[in-house]
Design goal:
The structure holds two protein chains of two kinds.
Chain A lengths: L1 H12 L1 E6 L2 E6 L4 H7 L23 E4 L2 E4 L10 E3 L3 H16 L8 H5 L6 H9 L3 H11 L3 H7 L3 H5 L11 H15 L14 E5 L3 H12 L3 E6 L18 H13 L3 E4 L9 H7 L2 E4 L5 H5 L6 E2 L2 E2 L13 E3 L10 H19 L20 H8 L19 H8 L14 H8 L17 E2 L4 E3 L9 H8 L7 E3 L6 E3 L6 H4 L4 H7 L5 E3 L5 H7 L1
Helix pairs in contact in A: 5-6, 5-16, 6-9, 7-9, 9-16, 10-14, 18-20
Chain B lengths: L10 H10 L6 H12 L4 H10 L4 H8 L13 E6 L2 H5 L2 H11 L14 E6 L11 E3 L2 E3 L7 H13 L17 E6 L2 H5 L2 H15 L3 E6 L10 E5 L6 E4 L6 H8 L5 H16 L2 H7 L1 E2 L4 H8 L17 H6 L4 H7 L20 H11 L11 H10 L6 E6 L8 H8 L1 H15 L3 E6 L4 H16 L15 E6 L9 H8 L23 E5 H13 L1 H5 L9 E8 L5 E6 L4 H8 L9 E6 L5 E4 L9 H6 L8 E6 L4 H15 L5 H18 L7 H15 L3 H5 L2 H9 L1 H8 L14 E3 L8 H5 L25 H5 L5 E3 L1
Parallel strand pairs in B: 1-2, 5-6, 10-11, 10-13, 11-12, 14-18
Antiparallel strand pairs in B: 1-3, 3-4, 5-7, 7-8, 8-9, 14-15, 16-17, 16-18, 19-20
Helix pairs in contact in B: 1-2, 9-10, 10-11, 15-19, 15-22, 16-17, 16-19, 18-20, 19-22, 26-27, 26-30, 27-28, 28-30
Classes of the chains: A alpha/beta, B alpha/beta.
């Protein structure tokens, strides 16, 4: 019906031109400003817009300026001669404010504290769900696809993840590092040799000087980006400072095995080669598309000889791009700035790898942005109980044979102590996405946090009211589908919330439309229990 | 199952459905019927409604939880509603509510006393602003209530409730046959001050003494500060006016003016006169006499122009013949092209040149009439665009959802001139070609609903409404829909959503209601006052109307003048008059010893104009220039006892609570603004708060979806603009006006004589009784209720 009406009026009025940010575009009568802008490739953010529902005009992050007034573009029809401002600082500020206001009322973490605190960003809750579910193979692949030298990290990492673990505020944190280690140990016992997938060869080459943790990590990431990596080190064997770790803490055979995994990614090692002696920087520059210096703390004294600028005892490198004073030469790790912890050194290697990768792609090198995450902070014990309902309530699991580490069963038991306080929609959440795009400060509007709650039924829909932005999509979808019970807004104003009528559960309200509503929920307010986080899908694909 | 226990009787629910209908849009009236009957909305009844109608569970649950009037748990026997309107707020409503809660021993979070007799609720505004602070218990309204009066009010109510006899004036339209006449104002606020009781007492006295006098209840008399107001007219004599009369003075008043006829009555009259003389009653009556030449009366009335309130204080609201005798329905008749309606006793029908709808619209257009609801859109343009819309189905709606705290113009107009508003709405209907019209009136105005209802019935009985408007053959059906306590429903798209049976959530405009209104059909929505002046313009011509006002704001504007002002009341002034003239000349200025500080105009969407800008003329553009808006007509005067940060907090608290919750800016933005203001008032502000507040206010104003959110920051922005020093004082932990409880302390000064009055009155025993010695206030215990200061005869209580 509606479509017919639009076509009719389109026939009458036909098409006309509007101007968005100075660019004219032809639109048909009835078309919204939003769709016109999107046709121009302008990414106007929307949260509450779903074509099927029509404009709901609730989130107001799609504001544009027309005739001196801010109006939601999703509900505004284009008119002949209309002039629209979209990508201006004023409009962006309004959109950012809308997003920041939503975050001031948002109860939930995009990333669980463990993942947020992991310098390498391992999706720990997802890994623990896999271990809990007996999917050790998937868990291992997940770990190997995120962490370079996973078997080393499992032994030596100072595990900031466990310091942030919410379970730790109840009793003891989940034994995240040991669980990660148990996966790589089980693989080794089984003689497994999983190699994470790499992108097709890019035809570009990188020389990495220094085979310590930072250099090895950089090699791991660059090789997976499809670049041809050569690691040069003056020592006869790779590993750098890792070679000095006591055998009891890091057996040599483990270190060798882990380094050989890096080699299996296609990384070439040239060992016992002294930079400045056998190999000169300008020579390297002719042979490689980029050079990354990860030469550790002793770099400073040599740097001048290489013609690089120093700052104190370190190489001078731009912290945002890792670029040194010499073209296409990058530096990272302790070579540029002292790094204490192993995992941080590796994270520096990753950051440098991303800069080099961008550079090789012809883009401006830029350190990867910190992933946006809403932070709800410390939970009260009552709130923790909401999360504990789906967790193993018993205390930490002690492996029966300490040295052998967790068995599969023990690992599953320990992993089930995880509270899964991460957001199931992280990576698939429009609110998070646009927060990242608009550089949102989630704590700009300080307010008392609403209490956290989570409504869940085993195997069913998880509803977290604190993450609901009252967009109205689920209410509308359930209405369109003529749900017998459906969902509605209860209350008014700031106290309004989405609920099923008469105190019934969300599950009962969404007999027919649960899947559709979960799919279109712009945030993580509605999610499925069994759904594997989108992060894992992305990593594994 | 046979014999299963039924929690309660559902037949009432079934009857309500039967009576009201089962379409989805019947949800609001059905819920109102259930609320009226059960005192709350029992879930079983709601489920029953879903079974019996097309109303879905989602719809009924959403609607029931949207509107303030609905309760979800049983209430006590009597509902005590504390008005939190602006005038009440600045006159200490908070203290009255605290006192009520103390008197009823309500713990935090409770609203009903343990005996289940009283339930205390806040209400946004009862529209009795000149009597502030106001408490309504059941159907009785108590004005000028203070914390000290609370126990008395509850006693008085209980006495009234147990006494037989209705508290309503059901037969107010009984003019009687006498040529001599006693008229008494019977507006809601008049009645709150006892006019209805006095009306009955006067009628009793007249009938007992057998004099040939008619006692007539009329609409609002405007001079709310002097009610009950009575006018006695005897043919051939100048009228006599009495103000502030007591109930006991009814009989002496009648005896003073009229001689009984029968011998027995005369003897009785003589006897009562002797008694009255002995009791000084006659003298007291005489002291209430108010000469129209008194400067006070002259000042109050002299500058007013009565167009919307034409014949105020003269017309019995429901006397159709009287309305017709005062040229009522003459304008509508012209628009219909028929002769003016005639009274039976009148002579020849007067010439009544007919007007085509286009001519009517042209007249309204050239008169310069702009909508009186707040935004000031040209009424003629609105009608013209609606007339041009194709299709046979169109609607006209009278927006009587006057929700601004501190405003009661619409209530008064609906109560006092129901036929005039009906005529205005009918003219709008005829002009645009609509055959259906709706009065949307907020439920807090029961008398307005009742009078419009009665007036519609009277018109229908005469055959002037329905199939044939005034007998012209033009069909027009008019109905009433009551609001349910949601300020946002005054916004036209929210009003439409409410009429269609939804939650009162505004939507984006365009499309405007004139294109897609009720049920998607072209709809004209006009404010009550706009419609009230329409007949006058048609009868008196465009020039007569445009003679009043300024270049862009023509005619008059009705204001509810209240707050810290000597003569509060309902006034109608020509546009262009300065705020100073209104406050000082008409209102008599602030109370002695106080300083005029600001005028809050336009309610929660308006702003505070400081005294130094009081020469600002009242017109749409000038007010906007100073940051305020014309609004619907609330005009609250503030003296130096008002804290401007508190005023901003008060309005934000209101709009925040009334936000529908749809769009991000209004739902969360107003809340965050309120939190900053609450911090400031609590002395917990931080230096960056002012900049944050201002920045957020601008964003909320620019980004919100509807008028409520767009204008909500105005009270904040104007107070920041004109009274920034007060904000800064709050940052330093001072409240210069001595209003914010967290920032002030009460102290007894040296001139205390030890009379113990304060100790006796202190509700929380914060003042130990020390006769003949200076008293001391325990600041820890003190709740800043102000009782001690009010009661102290020596001004020995200091607030700092």
């Amino acid at each position: 019906m509606k479509g017919q009406v639009t076509t009719q009026s389109a026939d009458k009025v036909g098409s006309f031109t509007v101007t968005i940010d100075g660019v004219p575009i032809k639109v048909t009568a009835g078309q919204t400003v939003l769709s016109a802008a999107r046709a121009l490739g302008i990414d106007i953010p929307t949260l509450c817009y779903l074509e099927k529902c029509g404009p709901l005009n609730t989130c107001l992050v799609c504001l544009v300026k027309i005739n001196g007034k801010l109006v939601p573009s999703c509900g505004t029809k284009a008119k002949p001669g209309m002039t629209v401002e979209s990508e201006t600082e004023e409009v962006h500020e309004a959109r950012r404010t809308a997003l920041e206001l939503l975050f001031s009322d948002h109860v939930g973490d995009c990333l669980a504290p463990c993942q947020r605190l992991c310098p390498l960003g391992l999706n720990i809750p997802s890994m623990l769900r896999q271990i809990r579910g007996g999917q050790s193979e998937e868990a291992l692949q997940h770990v190997r696809s995120t962490l370079p030298l996973a078997g080393v990290l499992g032994r030596l990492c100072h595990h900031p993840c466990e310091q942030g673990c919410r379970r730790g505020t109840w009793d003891d944190p989940a034994a995240i590092r040991d669980l990660e280690l148990s996966m790589t140990d089980l693989e080794m016992q089984a003689g497994g040799q999983f190699t994470p997938p790499s992108k097709p060869a890019s035809g570009k080459s990188v020389a990495i000087i220094g085979a310590g943790p930072c250099g090895l990590a950089a090699a791991y990431y660059l090789a997976r980006h499809g670049h041809a990596v050569t690691v040069v080190d003056r020592h006869p064997s790779a590993g750098g400072s890792l070679r000095n770790v006591a055998e009891a803490d890091l057996p040599k055979n483990i270190l060798d095995a882990e380094i050989s995994r890096v080699a299996r990614l296609g990384v070439e090692f040239k060992l016992g080669v002294q930079l400045g002696g056998d190999v000169r920087l300008d020579g390297l520059a002719r042979g490689f598309d980029a050079i990354l210096l990860t030469t550790g703390e002793e770099t400073g004294s040599q740097a001048n000889k290489l013609g690089l600028t120093t700052a104190g005892s370190n190489l001078k490198a731009d912290p945002n791009t890792c670029l040194t004073s010499v073209r296409k030469v990058f530096a990272a790790g302790s070579a540029a700035k002292p790094v204490k912890q192993l995992v941080r050194a590796m994270a520096e290697g990753r950051a440098a790898a991303e800069c080099v990768h961008l550079f090789l792609n012809g883009e401006a090198p830029r350190r990867p942005e910190k992933r946006f995450s809403s932070i709800m902070g410390r939970l009260e014990r009552g709130e923790l109980k909401e999360l504990l309902r789906s967790a193993n309530m018993s205390g930490s699991v002690t492996p029966c044979d300490r040295c052998a580490g967790f068995t599969r069963q023990e690992a599953a038991l320990e992993a089930s102590r995880c509270l899964h306080c991460d957001c199931r929609s992280s990576g698939d959440c429009l609110l998070q996405h646009y927060a990242q795009v608009y550089g949102v400060d989630a704590s700009r509007f300080r307010a008392e946090r609403k209490s956290f709650s989570q409504v869940r039924q085993p195997g069913g829909v998880i509803f977290e009211p604190g993450k609901c932005i009252l967009c109205g999509i689920c209410v509308k979808l359930s209405e369109l589908a003529r749900e017998p019970l459906g969902l509605t807004f209860i209350g008014r104003g700031f106290e309004a919330r989405v609920a099923a009528p008469f105190g019934r559960t969300i599950e009962e309200g969404l007999k027919k439309t649960a899947r559709e509503c979960v799919e279109h929920c712009p945030t993580g307010a509605l999610a499925f229990e069994e759904e594997v986080s989108a992060d894992v899908n992305r990593v594994n694909s | 199952v046979k014999g299963a226990a039924i929690p309660f009787d559902l037949t009432v629910t079934d009857e309500a459905v039967q009576r009201i209908g089962s379409a989805p849009e019947a949800v609001l009236p059905i819920l109102q019927a259930l609320q009226d009957h059960y005192g709350y909305l029992p879930e079983d009844a709601l489920k029953r409604v879903c079974e019996k109608t097309q109303i879905t569970p989602a719809s009924i649950a959403g609607v029931a939880s949207f509107y303030d009037m609905f309760r979800h748990k049983p209430a006590g026997k009597h509902l005590v509603r504390v008005c939190r309107g602006t005038a009440c707020h600045v006159n200490g409503a908070e203290r009255v509510e605290d006192a009520l809660r103390r008197e009823l021993n309500l713990e935090e979070g409770e609203d009903t006393d343990h005996a289940g007799r009283f339930t205390v609720e806040q209400v946004a505004c009862l529209g009795c602003c000149t009597l502030a602070p106001v408490v309504r218990i059941g159907h009785s309204t108590f004005g000028h209530s203070t914390a000290e009066k609370v126990p008395g009010i509850l006693r008085e109510f209980s006495r009234k409730a147990s006494a037989l006899g209705a508290t309503h004036v059901d037969d107010e339209h009984s003019p009687g046959g006498g040529r001599a006449q006693i008229t008494i104002g019977l507006g809601s606020c008049c009645m709150a001050k006892g006019s209805d009781d006095l009306f009955r007492a006067l009628r009793d006295s007249v009938s007992k003494s057998g004099v040939n006098v008619s006692v007539k209840g009329v609409g609002c008399v405007g001079m709310c500060h002097r009610t009950p107001l009575i006018e006695i007219t005897v043919p051939g004599k100048a009228p006599t006016i009495y103000s502030s009369l007591q109930l006991t003075q009814a009989r002496p008043l009648v005896n003073r003016h009229f001689r009984s006829r029968g011998l027995v009555q005369r003897a009785a009259g003589l006897w009562t006169r002797v008694v009255d003389t002995l009791l000084d009653n006659q003298d007291q009556v005489a002291s209430c006499e108010l000469s129209p030449r008194e400067p006070e009366v002259g000042a109050f009335l002299g500058k007013q122009v009565h167009i919307a309130t034409e014949h105020f204080g003269e017309l019995a609201p429901l006397d159709l013949d009287e309305y017709v005798a005062h040229d009522g329905f003459q304008a509508l008749a012209r628009c219909l092209g028929i002769p003016a309606p005639q009274l039976t006793q009148s002579g020849q029908p007067a010439a009544n040149p007919s007007l085509s709808p286009e001519q009517v619209i042209e007249m309204i257009s050239t008169s310069g009439l702009r909508g009186r609801g707040g935004a000031g859109f040209a009424t003629g343009d609105k009608w013209r665009m609606a007339r041009k819309q194709p299709g046979p189905d169109k609607y006209v709606i009278c927006n009587g959802d006057e929700g601004d705290p501190g405003a009661f113009m619409d209530r008064m107009l609906l109560e006092s001139f129901p036929f005039r508003i009906i005529e205005g709405l009918a003219i709008a209907a005829v002009s645009i070609g609509a055959h259906e019209g709706i009065f949307y009136i907020r439920h807090e105005y029961p008398l307005a609903v009742k009078r419009i209802n009665a007036a519609l019935k009277i018109c229908q009985q005469r055959g002037w409404l329905g199939e044939s408007l005034l007998g012209s053959g033009y069909a027009l059906r008019l109905t009433i829909q009551q609001g349910a306590g949601a300020f946002v429903c005054g916004e036209e798209t929210a009003l439409l959503a409410s009429l269609e049976g939804g939650r009162g959530m505004p939507r984006l405009r365009p499309p405007y209601p004139i294109e897609q209104g009720l049920w998607g059909k072209p709809t004209v929505i006009n404010n009550v006052e706009t419609l009230a002046v329409v007949p006058w313009i048609i009868r008196n011509g465009v020039k007569a109307f445009a003679a009043y006002g300024t270049a862009t704001s023509k005619g008059t504007k009705v204001f509810a003048l209240a707050g810290n002002v000597v003569r509060g009341g309902l006034i109608e002034i020509p546009m262009g008059m300065s705020l100073r003239e209104i406050v000082e000349d008409i209102g008599g200025g602030v109370r002695p010893g106080r300083k005029f500080k600001a005028v809050q105009i336009g309610g929660p969407s308006g702003g505070c104009v400081p005294a130094r800008l009081a020469d600002t003329p009242v017109d749409f553009e000038s007010l906007r220039e100073v940051g305020a808006i014309m609004g619907s007509g609330g005009l609250v005067v503030l003296d130096d006892s008002a804290c401007m940060v508190d005023i901003a907090r008060y309005f934000l608290d209101f709009t925040q609570k009334q936000s529908c919750g749809k769009c991000t800016f209004c739902r969360i933005g107003t809340r965050r603004m309120l939190e900053i203001l609450e911090r400031l008032c609590a002395g917990k502000g931080q230096p960056r708060d002012l900049a944050d507040l201002e920045g957020l206010a601008n964003q909320v104003g620019a980004g919100s979806l509807c008028g409520l959110g767009k204008t909500a920051p105005n009270p904040v922005l104007t107070t920041l603009r004109y009274f920034r020093d007060e904000y800064e004082a709050h940052l330093q932990g001072r409240c210069p006006a001595g209003k914010c409880p967290a920032l002030i302390k009460y102290r007894v000064l040296e001139n205390c004589t030890g009379c113990t009055l304060c100790a006796q009155r202190c509700p929380v025993d914060a003042i130990p009784m020390t006769p003949y010695a200076r008293h001391v206030i325990d600041t820890e215990k003190c709740t800043r209720c102000d009782s001690c200061r009010q009661v102290c005869p020596y001004n020995a209580i200091e607030v700092k």
